[in-house]
C-alpha cells in the first residue's frame, strides 16, 4: 500500500508540474514589448489600433496611402498628412515603433512561437502579426542581397501561414 501511495504522489506531482509548465507556455507573450511602457507623454499598456469597423477602414486607407514602417530608425511614415495627423494614428505609431519586431532574429522567434501555438491568436496578437507581415513585405521589397532576400521571404511566408492557420477553425 505504501508503494502505491508513493506512485500516486509522484504522478500527482508530475501532473501538476506539467500543468504549470503548459500554463506558462500559453501565457508567454508573442509581443512582449506591448507590455512595456516606453512613452512618457503617450504611455499605453498593450496598445491596440483596431477597435471598430471604422478603425479597420482607417487602417486600410493608411496602408493604401503608402504607410511605411521603417526598421532601424523606428519611424512610421504616412505620406498623407491629413491621415498622419489623426489622433487615433498615435496608437498605430506606438505599435509600429515600439511593439513590432524589427530584426529578423526577433521575427524568427515570433514565427517559432506562432508555429507552436495550439490556440487562436488574441485580437491584439492577430493585428500585430498582420502589421509585422506588412513590415516584412516592405523590408523584402528593399532587399538587394539575394541571401537576405530569401531569409526575409521565408519569414513572410511563415507569417502568412500563421495568419491563415489562425483563420481556420481548430
From TrEMBL:
<protein>
    <submittedName>
        <fullName>Protein FAM180A-like</fullName>
    </submittedName>
</protein>
<keyword id="KW-0732">Signal</keyword>
<feature type="signal peptide">
    <location>
        <begin position="1"/>
        <end position="23"/>
    </location>
</feature>
<dbReference type="InterPro" id="IPR029170">
    <property type="entry name" value="FAM180"/>
</dbReference>
<dbReference type="Pfam" id="PF15173">
    <property type="entry name" value="FAM180"/>
</dbReference>
